Amino acid sequence: MGIVGAVTGFFRHAWGYDNILHDLNVDKYQLAGLVENEEYEHRGQKHVRARIKGWTKRLDHRHHAIDALTIALTTQGYVQRLNNLSSSMAICLTI
Hints:
Blueprint: H1 5-14, H2 20-31, E1 35-42, E2 45-52, H3 63-73, H4 76-94
Antiparallel strand pairs: 1-2
Helix pairs in contact: 1-3
């Protein structure tokens, strides 16, 4: 089963894998002065988190391993369900 990048990205985000590499690299980037604090609100409470300036997963080659894990955990049923939901949303938006 082949999985396109958009599907991999969707499940990587849905399963919370997006921030793994960022969080592993924060200390290294902080020593270089490349981290800033970001305020955000979640469920009515304000929080602060450290964010690497200009971070992209491509800065760490281990993003390939995260994508491989995501693909390994993605079943044909998940892809079909996502496609069905996407199709239903497209129909609802045209009505």
